[in-house]
Design a protein that fits this description.
elongated, alpha+beta, single chain, 3-stranded mixed β-sheet
Length: about 120
């Protein structure tokens, strides 16, 4: 009398199969062909709204050499975060103006002297 294989045996058989090897090989090959690291003058900045009110907008101004950029981020809810990519050299800082729902406006230079391509800005009125 033949008993059906247990589910763990099926998982092991699937993991050992040629299809699984082809799938994993394809994923690795695709990553090697298409992965591009961030360029040195690109920063990922995450804005964290740590307040209990809506942020209507964040206005960024930044530049270096002969480049100048102006960017707006709209509506970030309380306890929400938003990540953006900006064409700016880490460590140089960027002018930031935050407008809250109650009319409060904050203006400051964010992250001057902060190194690294992944940066955070915590916002509280």
């Amino acid at each position: 009398m033949h008993q059906p294989a247990a589910w763990i045996d099926r998982v092991i058989d699937t993991a050992r199969s040629h299809r699984m090897l082809y799938l994993l090989g394809g994923v690795i090959l695709g990553w090697l062909l298409f992965y591009r690291p961030l360029q040195p003058d690109i920063m990922l900045v995450t804005f964290h709204n740590q307040s209990d009110m809506l942020i209507h907008s964040i206005h960024l101004e930044f530049g270096f050499d002969l480049n100048q950029s102006d960017l707006r981020i709209m509506q970030i809810r309380p306890d929400e975060s938003r990540t953006i990519a900006i064409n700016h050299v880490p460590g140089r800082g960027f002018n930031t103006e935050v407008s809250y729902a109650d009319g409060t406006i904050q203006s400051f230079c964010a992250n001057r002297g902060v190194t690294g391509q992944h940066q955070n800005v915590v916002l509280q009125p």
